Amino acid sequence: MEKRVFFKGWLLPLLLIAPQILVSAVFFFYPAGQAVWQSLFIPDPFGLSMQYVGLGNFKYLLSDPYYRASFFTTGLFSILVTLVSMIPALFLAIVADRLIKGAGTYRTMLIWPYAVAPAIAGVLWLFMFNTRVGVVSWYLGNLGYDWNHVLNGSEAMGLVVVSSAWGRISYNFLFFFAALQSVPKSIIEAAAIDGARFWRRFWTIVLPLLSPTTFFLLVVNVVYAFFETFGVIHTITSGGPQQSTTILVYKVFADGFVGQDLGSSAAQSVILLVVVGALTVFQFKYIERRVHY
Amino acid sequence: MVEKRGLGIWLSHAIMILGVLIVFFPIWLAFVASTVTQPEIVSPPMPLLPGDQFFINYKKALLAGVNVPVGTMLTNSLVMAIGIAVGKIIISLLSAFAIVYFRFPGKKIFFWLIFITLMLPVEVRIVPTYEIIAGFGMLNSYGGLIFPLIASATATFLFRQFFMTVPDELAEAARVDGAKPLRFFWDILIPMSRTNIAALFVILFIYGWNQYLWPLLITTDPEMNTIVMGIKQMFPSGDDVADWPVIMATSILAMIPPVIVVISMQKLFIRGLVDSEK
C-alpha cells in the first residue's frame, strides 16, 4: 500500500526519520551486534583479554544440562501461563457476553490487574503464599497441606505461573469480550430458531468465529511468558529452588550480571534473538493472512 | 435476544461477581495489609478487613520507606514513564510521517531497519546495552532509564497505519495551497491523530511504569530506583522479617497511577490496545 500524494524533497524526510534511526542504531543494532560478537569469545579469568572460541560458547551451552533444563522450564512455563490466563478469560467473557446490563461494570473491575506490573503482581502473590505470614499458605496448612515454594520446585513453578497469568486474564478477557461482541447476533438468533442450544451454538458458531482472536492471543501470551515475566520470577523465586523456575531470560541475567560469564550470556542472548525472530515472523505471517480475511 | 432471562441471568451475574472477587482478592489483601500493624500480619492469619493504620503506614512509606522514601521512587517512575511515552510518540510520529508522505533514497532500508527492532526486546540485549549506557556515563540517570526503551517500531507502525487511512485529498489540497510539509504535519495530521496519540500514550505510560529489569540493572543508587523495581529491594536479605505494612503500602502506591490511567481512559485504552496489537 502506497500513498498517491507525496511531498517533494529528500533532506527533510531524512531529518525526520533520523532520531528513530539514531536511537535504534545506538540502543538496538549496536548492542545486538555486540551480543553476536561477544558470543564468539570467552574472557580470561582476570577480564583483561578475550579469547576467540568460535562457536564454543554455543556448543558448551547446548551440552549444558542446566541450559537444556532452562529451555524445558521455559516451555512448560509458557504453556501453563498461556492456558491459565486464557481459559478463565474466555469463560468470563462468554458469561459477560450473555449479560445486557452490567457487563461494562464487570469489565472495568476486571481491567485492574492488567495495570499492575508483573513485579508487583509477584509481590502480591508472594505475600499470600509466604511460608511465614501468607494467608493462603496458612489456610492450606490448616487443611493439612504443607505449602513451601521455597523448597518445593513444583509449588514454586505453580506460584510463578499463577502470578504471571493473573494480570493476563484481564488482557485476554478484553480481547475475547470484544470478539464475542462482534459476533453477528443474527447468526446466533437464526441458529436458536433452528433449535440449537447454547453449547451447540457455542461449539459450531461462536468458537470458530473466535479462532483468529484465540490464535493471536496464543502467540502474544507465549511472547509475554518468554520475555515479560522476569519481574515475577525475580521477586518470587529468583529462579530457584534448584533452578526449577529459571526461564531463559532469567538465565541471561543470572549468568551475565550475577555470574559475570559474559561469553555465555551473550551466546544465550543470540539464541533468544533467534527465538524472538521466529516468533515475530510467525506472528506477522499470521497477521498478514488475517488482513485478507 | 436469545435466552437472556430468568435464572440464567442471575447465575451469570453470580459467576461474574465471583470471578471479579477472585481476581480482585490479591489487591484487596494488599490493601488490608497496608492498613494494619506488623504484629497483626506476622501472627497469621492476618485480618481480612482493613485496620486503622492507613495514615501511619502510608506516611511512613512515602516519607521514610525502607532504603529510600517511596515518594522519591514515585517521582523517578513518573519521569521515566512520561519520558518513554512522550519520547516514543514524538520520534514515531516524525518517522511515520517521513515514511508515508515522502519518497527519499534509502526509504526501504530505513523502513526495514525500524521493522527489525520489533524483534529486539531489551531483555535479550541487556549486557551490551548496559555497557553502552555505562560507557556514556548514564548509569543512575533519567537518560539511561529512558533512551534504550524509547525506540519502538510498534508506535511507528501504528501511526503509519493511521496516516495511510488519511484521505490523499488533504495532502493534495495542502500542496496545491502551497503549504510546506511541516505545516501540513502540524496543522492537519497531528490534530487528526489526537485520539491515536492519546490511546498510545496510555499504553506506553503503563509499559514505561511497569519496567523492571532495565531499572534494576542501571540504577544502583537507591535515590534513582523506580517504585516497581524498588519494592524488591525493600525485602531484607537473610532471615529478618520484612516490614510488610510498608511494603504493601508501597505496592498499592505503585499500582495507583497506572490503574488511574487505565480506568479513566478505559475506552481509549481498549481501542489503543486492540489497534496496536493486531
Automatic annotation (TrEMBL), chain A:
Q: How does it sit in the membrane?
A: Multi-pass membrane protein
Short name of any one Pfam family annotated for the protein: BPD_transp_1
For whether the record's keyword set contains Transmembrane, the answer is yes
**Major localization listed first in the record, in broad terms:** membrane
GO cellular component terms given for this protein: plasma membrane
Which parts of the chain are coiled coil? Answer: none
Check the record and name the SUPFAM superfamilies matching this protein.
MetI-like
The entry's localization annotation reads: Cell inner membrane; Cell membrane
Question: Which residue ranges does UniProt annotate as crossing the membrane?
Answer: 12-30, 71-96, 108-128, 156-180, 201-227, 266-287
Kindly state which keywords UniProt assigns to this record, in alphabetical order.
Cell inner membrane, Cell membrane, Membrane, Transmembrane, Transmembrane helix, Transport
What CDD domains is this protein classified in? TM_PBP2
Tell me which family the UniProt entry assigns to this protein.
Belongs to the binding-protein-dependent transport system permease family.
Q: What does this protein do?
A: Part of the ABC transporter complex UgpBAEC involved in sn-glycerol-3-phosphate (G3P) import. Probably responsible for the translocation of the substrate across the membrane.
Q: What's the protein here called?
A: sn-glycerol-3-phosphate transport system permease protein UgpA
Q: Which organism is it from?
A: Planktomarina temperata RCA23
